[in-house]
Specification:
This protein has 252 residues and is of the alpha/beta class. It contains 10 helices and 9 strands. A 7-stranded mixed beta sheet has the order 5-4-3-6-7-9-8. Strands 1-2 form a two-stranded antiparallel ribbon. Helix 3 links the parallel strand 3 and strand 4.
Amino acid sequence: MSVADGAFTDHFAAAAAAYARARPSYPAALYAAIDAVVPGHRLAWDCATGSGQAVAPLAARYADVVASDASAAQLSRLVRQPNVHPVLARAERVPLADATVDLVTVAQALHWFAGDPFYAEVRRVLRPGGAIAAWTYDLLRIAPALDRLIAHLYGDILAGCWPPARQAVERRYANLPWPFADSRTLRFEMRARWRCDDLLDYLASWSAVSVFRRRHDHDPLAPLAAALRAAWGDSGVREVCWPVTLKLAQVS
């Protein structure tokens, strides 16, 4: 999703089902690093939760989790849990009381709304000593032949279909506003064991693929599918890896 001049654009509604099915899980080490700086575990706010890839680990750690998103289509895919409370809301305006939140998380979404209004909302809802954790992951890596095909899809076929905010992901959030003094940047790897069909599902969840389909009335993955399957080979399951960057800060 993105915000421009106050308007919300839902980049993921068309691929909400694919997103929920295909997106990978974040590494346990990432949550351990966050746990180390958060003093309380009463309430977490997962902002721009999407279909909730971060929700289950948070729900296991916090008494309650508010999972907000501006996309009703994405929220409809959220797996319901007793202590998870879905909320349709913009990142800059969430129905939470002042100084009630121990942790704000933003998984693969900060690039859509980083700016003063969001950070003011973070400061409003966090308890003293609470924390904000925002992370992003870039292009996956599998094997050289597959990586070249995926890079061709990403950078050539889908050129012009990615929103400008995607550049912040490519730069691993190094250029985003982040107005917190007590802050650190940590690196992790996200891994999954996939079959080729899992890869194709994941690529289909890219927002730029949906944009390409709308503009050109055909599927950009169709011409590549055979080449991807050939490069995948007969190994069945392969390990897939993404570099993950976490920005973590305590807010006094």
